[in-house]
Design brief:
The complex is a heterodimer of chains A (275) and B (270).
Chain A: H1 56-63, H2 73-84, E1 88-95, E2 98-104, H3 107-119, H4 123-129, E3 134-136, H5 149-155, E4 160-168, E5 170-179, H6 185-203, H7 215-222, H8 225-237, H9 242-256, H10 260-268
Helix pairs in contact in A: 1-2, 1-6, 2-6, 3-9, 8-9, 8-10, 9-10
Chain B: H1 15-33, H2 39-54, E1 58-64, E2 70-75, H3 78-90, H4 94-101, E3 105-109, H5 118-124, E4 129-137, E5 140-149, H6 157-211, H7 215-229, H8 233-241, H9 247-256
Antiparallel strand pairs in B: 1-2, 1-5, 3-4, 4-5
Classes of the chains: A alpha+beta (275), B alpha+beta (270).
């Protein structure tokens, strides 16, 4: 019996292959295969099971007036922050099982996502690793879980963090909301909807190899270019693996309190040497 | 696929039990759809249930491909499969009519006047009657549920409605399957592209450190090597990062044919 179905153009795509955000499958399981998961590690919100969401309303609000062809992910993150009325929103996209690209609504969100990357701990990382929502309504009570991230984030004025794993058929990244004050359950539902819209946005980004990364993703990935160049340099200098070199760069950033990007820049321009 | 009823059995005939059977079947199919499912198992189960419900002889599903032509995806038997293939080859028959006219064919005798090629072939296989129902989506027909019966026409309006519901479930399963498959492909592309970019940057760093030059020069070497070898820069970079390609080889390969052009295909990369 023949088993090939040759036709596989998705139903929400126009024949020309241009994305139609208004047709995105917010209810389809392709968009989110884990609607039935239960949020773990939530304080005060335990046992709150996400309901099947219709993200259509927030998607209209979020994407109104944006051109799918040239809107940047930063812009969409910033709109997420406005829509959810939170301080900052960070998006990480996975590559090699780690944050291959980080996008943020503003400098504060960049710092919070970078902090997690440097420390190797935090809600965004847990959301991706455990593939579950991480709802920290009171960050100050999470010091045991994130001994270094929680105090630092609190010092930056963040009191609550809500991180949602993004799935595009499989784990693709996370969307994290940073709030200056605790939030009600309805607000968290709204964030959950926004995370689904973000998944749909990722689905609409055509990517095909090095040269044809969607501009929005290319821009996001370029923020990591220096870091990986630096990792290459350090791996040669120290004769170690790329992963170990990355760990050294992270450790240096944490130890010196410098931004990871500045450390990477210093290594690439030979102002910083490891030995 | 859990099928507590073996294929070849038939649904109960008294109205109450039959109603119950229909509900059970719809529940079973719906349950399958909300979890991970194998499309072909599901469509085969659906064909089998159709045969049981109608006490018909055979059922099969044909689906329109990207080329807008019908393809056989499930058949209740080998005989049905070859008849459907014959119909596709001769480009004539009930499925074609449903596909082009977008209306069901119900209780239609297999008459030579209507299908001069298909009807004799189907009658020779022992069939008298045909039903074909559209798999509908947004006013389009994306496939056909085809049923052949060895009896004279007996399909009631109720039978037709239930059978159409089965065809609609097939539609939903197919669209769901395609959406998931497309999303998986997209996720792989996105991650692959990010991973390639990372490997290129890391290789630039490694080469620049070994040659004590800057990363721009290192990238130029990578690019020239790739172009001379007609390889993708991402693959070359990955070999560098994994220590499967030495700096000396890159330098030699980059100078090798000395015809490197410097078009800025990766111009945005620092």
């Amino acid at each position: 019996m023949p088993v090939a179905i040759p036709y596989d153009r998705p139903i929400w795509y126009e024949p020309q292959g241009t994305a139609r955000w208004d047709l995105l499958p917010f209810r389809a399981s392709a968009c989110d295969a884990n609607t039935d998961h239960v949020a773990i590690g939530s304080d005060g919100d335990a046992g709150h099971e996400p309901v099947q969401l219709d993200a259509g309303d927030v998607s209209r609000e979020l994407l109104a007036g944006l051109d799918p062809g040239c809107a940047s992910l930063e812009e969409i993150c910033a709109r997420c922050a406005t829509c959810a009325e939170v301080t900052a929103v960070g998006l990480q996209l996975l590559a090699n099982g780690d944050a291959g690209a980080v996008v943020a609504s503003d400098a504060a969100a960049t710092a919070l996502e970078e902090l997690q990357f440097v420390l190797g701990e935090g809600p965004s990382r847990d959301a991706v690793t455990a593939d579950t929502e991480v709802l920290a309504s009171d960050l100050a009570r999470r010091v045991e879980q994130w001994p270094r991230f929680a105090p630092d984030a609190v010092a930056m004025g963040i009191r609550a963090v809500f991180a949602f794993p993004l799935r595009v058929a499989r784990r693709a990244g996370s969307l994290t909301f940073y709030c200056a004050e605790p939030r009600a359950r309805d607000d968290i539902d709204r964030m959950r909807r926004l995370a689904r819209v973000m998944t749909a946005v990722l689905l609409s980004l055509p990517t095909d190899g090095f040269d044809r990364l969607a501009p929005a993703v290319r821009q996001a990935a370029s923020t990591r270019d220096l870091l990986h160049q630096a990792a290459g340099i350090v791996s040669v200098t120290l004769d170690c693996s790329i992963d170990d070199a990355l760990a050294r760069l992270r450790a240096h950033a944490y130890g010196s309190g410098e931004r990871l990007g500045d450390v990477a820049q210093a290594a690439v321009s030979h102002r910083l040497r490891f030995d | 696929m859990s099928g507590e009823r073996a294929a070849g059995t038939s649904a109960p005939q008294d109205p109450t039990s039959r109603e119950r059977w229909v509900v059970d079947t719809l529940v079973q199919l719906a349950n399958t759809l909300v979890s991970d499912f194998d499309l072909f198992d599901l469509l085969s189960l659906l064909s089998a249930r159709c045969v049981e419900f109608l006490q018909a002889s055979e059922a099969g599903l044909l689906v329109a491909g990207e080329d807008a032509r019908l393809h056989v995806v499930a058949s209740s038997s080998e005989q049905m499969h070859s008849l459907e293939l014959f119909e596709l080859q001769s480009a004539e028959g009930p499925c074609f009519d449903v596909y082009t006219r977008r209306e069901p064919v119900l209780n239609e005798p297999l008459a030579d006047t209507r299908w001069p090629l298909f009807a004799p072939k189907a009658r020779a296989a022992g069939f008298q009657t045909v039903h074909a129902l559209p798999m509908r989506h947004n006013h389009e027909v994306i496939g056909v549920l085809n049923i052949l019966d060895h009896r004279a026409p007996v399909l009631s309006g109720y039978d037709a409605a239930v059978t159409q519901a089965l065809a609609d479930i097939a539609t939903f399963a197919l669209l769901q399957h395609r959406a998931l498959r497309h999303a998986t492909a997209l996720a792989e592309q996105l991650q692959g592209a990010l991973q390639t970019r990372i490997a290129v940057e890391q290789a630039k760093g490694m080469l620049s450190a070994r040659l004590q030059g800057d990363v721009g020069t290192a990238f130029d070497l990578l690019r020239r090597y790739s172009r001379n070898r007609n390889e993708r820069i991402g693959d070359v970079a990955r070999r560098v990062v994994e220590h499967r390609l030495s700096t000396a080889e890159i330098v030699a390969g980059a100078d090798g044919r000395g015809t490197a052009q410097t078009t800025a295909s990766h111009g945005d990369t620092k």
